[in-house]
């Protein structure tokens, strides 16, 4: 009985404390939303909250393999067929080029941050250090949503291609239909769940062994890509690129709409930046790994898309298992089975890398106390974020069990593009205001005008109201950027090891492209994104801001005690002298 009373009293005390915390919400929001950390604090004080350090075991070539492995399986096998059939036609390779340019510019922004702040938090850490806690939390929550949803989507594609590897032509043959559930949630995918749980256990064991497994799979995967590319050029026909309705049957608009969707294919390169705490030479390895993997992947994507559209006309390309079916149509059933097996292997590699990155994001968000701190713990013997890996693995498996691919992709794209847009803004602000100590007003005004011109250009394109809108806003973007470059020049070398050249142009073009690609998405994407934004904001107001406020109070108290102890010790020593 006494234990019951003690438990009730404890619960009542916790309730009173939480109600008191909620009453302090406006004050705490004011203090915490724009709170920033220095790179030294992020690299030392915050990292110590994990209890143990991640082990630096990876080299630059392993980072390239991680970047390539993370992107290849996701993009070609999941989005190419649908975009070719419904949006871009044979010009899907141009969509990949446009999305690749945007990804390359974003990767340059990531790289400068990663070299200067080599922590596992990626965009979350970069934005928290630059724009404050809430913007960092917003980016981190969207990155986690991107990883979990995209991994669930990709794992379901694994089941489709694996069925072709075993000679089955129905992509749903290994799924279980449940009639009581809504239409797009009623095909239960148990092979996808099994794959995710198996990879989760593998990632809990060791980062080094996981990266070696990825390296081996990526080598085989690139060889397999070469087989598809060569076969497409040998067995295909260039006539299929212009028939039945030309190389761009849906026009320029279709090509650009397709670019926004295939941007899903480039999710994965940012996971290389989350390995910053496990790289032996971050200043050398991170630029090579991040930028190199994006360039190599873009070339392979374009060649693969071309080979697919040469083998069969775009209007015969299937939305599902799009690279297996063309081999059936040319009479190569054995090759269709081989493509199914190779695509499955590529999807496993991409899942391995993405799940590696998502756990490190959540670990660093846990260090910041924006989510429960037990998610930040690093296992002392394996050097991996064990709790974060297990938690996200279970979440991904649950979504993969129920949810169809089409529901996921556009929500993932809008969140990803929004984060990359914020990182490009943060790089300009950090380069000119934080590093060079110029007045912030000029930079803030430039970023505002740049975003407004990008929105004006994009709206003119989307709604086709006034033809003069695009050249007007495009010209204004160039004029504003040129004027800012002249008035607030960038130092030639702001980072000790590596920095983005020709600033502010790469970051400004990245901002412009990300805004443009966001506006090409459907209204439903914005509605789902608005709901997600409301949910994560409510979580921050009800939990995150109070948790970080208490963590700051505790650390300030510890620092004051340490300072008082040190002062007392100094005073005693002086008196003894």
Automatic annotation (TrEMBL):
GO terms for molecular function: amino acid transmembrane transporter activity. Keywords: Membrane, Transmembrane, Transmembrane helix. GO terms for cellular component: plasma membrane. It is found in: Membrane. Signal peptide: none annotated. Belongs to the amino acid-polyamine-organocation (APC) superfamily. Cationic amino acid transporter (CAT) (TC 2.A.3.3) family. This is Putative amino acid/polyamine transporter I, cationic amino acid transporter. The lineage of its organism: Eukaryota, Viridiplantae, Streptophyta, Embryophyta, Tracheophyta.
